[in-house]
Amino acid sequence: MVDAKLRVFVIIFSNYSQLNIPQHILRQLRDLSCEETAKQLGMNVKRQMMSCPWHTDKKPSLGFKGNHWKCFSCDRGGDAIELVRQLYSLSFIDACSVLCEKFNIRLRDYPSDSIYIPKLKKINKENNLKEKELFDRDVAQAIIDNTSLGLSATRFLYGERKLSSTICESLHIHSFELEDTQLRTTLVKQFGLDRLKRCKVVNERGYLNINTPSLIIPYYDSYKHLIGLQTRYLGEQNKNYFIPRFKRICNSNMRIFNMQILSTLVPDSKLFIAEGITDCVAMLTRGFNAIAIPSASSIPTTDLTSLAKYDLYMIPDKDTSGQLAFEKLHRLFLRLDRRLKWIELPSQYKDFAEYHMRNSVK
Question: Domain Zinc finger CHC2-type, which positions (predicted)?
Answer without folding.
Answer: 52-100
